[in-house]
Amino acid sequence: MREITASGQTVEEAVQSALEQLNTTKDQVEIDIIDEGKKGLLGLFGSKRAFVKVTLAKNKVEETQVYLSQVIANMNVEAEIKMDVVGNHVNFELSGDNIAVLIGKRGQTLNALQYLLHLAINKDGKQFYTVSLDAEGYRQRRKDTLESLAGKMADKAVRLNKKVALEPMPSFERKIIHSALQSNKNINTYSDGVEPHRHIVIKP
């Protein structure tokens, strides 16, 4: 972490001087005013310079990537991490030989890791990020599986003319089911239960 103490005739001037020395912008730093200074008589006599301490803010995205690599290492898995940032959304993509360990049964380990990353990147609360974590294209394969499951369960609900409850799943997976069935006029879908046991019910 880099920090600079700078001075100027005013606080604004001192801050600008520090930003130029750090080669950064105001939204990337934390500013601590040491002395606001004071204007002297006629702007000359008895004037006192303003002093500020300007610190480069931590890069939350890079910190979270380091955190992810440490968690993976502690799980005794070697994996390559690719990161992609679009606006306030960060996507991490994992690849490696023993990637199944990081995915877990029905993606439970991957979902847990994604939740930890969401907590880690948003812990200071200054800027909100959404996070997605994928491994060897698992998310797309899971999406295909869920959409296929949705179709089969909807057919079952209509055929038996009674409600069908699916297994508990995280909200973003429930959303896939809802989206897959929203154009089906023969059924309604809704979520029931309390996290982590919240699940979808398909009703004729």
From TrEMBL:
Domain called R3H: residue spans: 140-204
Q: Kindly report the protein's main subcellular placement as a broad class.
A: cytoplasm
Q: Which domain of life is it from?
A: Bacteria
Ranges where the record places region Jag_N domain:
5-55
Under SMART domains, the record lists: Jag_N, R3H
Keywords recorded for this protein, A-Z = Cell shape, Cell wall biogenesis/degradation, Chaperone, Cytoplasm, RNA-binding
Localization terms from the record: Cytoplasm
Instruction: Return any one Pfam family short name.
Output: R3H
- List, in alphabetical order, the GO biological process terms annotated in this UniProt record: cell wall organization; peptidoglycan biosynthetic process; regulation of cell shape
* One GO cellular component term: cytoplasm
Q: Name one GO molecular function term.
A: RNA binding
Tell me, in a sentence or two, what this protein's role is.
A probable RNA chaperone. Forms a complex with KhpA which binds to cellular RNA and controls its expression. Plays a role in peptidoglycan (PG) homeostasis and cell length regulation.
How is the quaternary structure described? Forms a complex with KhpA.
What does the record's free text say on domains? Has an N-terminal Jag-N domain and 2 RNA-binding domains (KH and R3H).
- The family this protein is said to belong to: Belongs to the KhpB RNA-binding protein family.
PANTHER family tied to this protein:
PROTEIN JAG, RNA-BINDING PROTEIN KHPB
This chain belongs to which protein, by name?
RNA-binding protein KhpB
What is the organism of origin for this protein? Oceanobacillus picturae
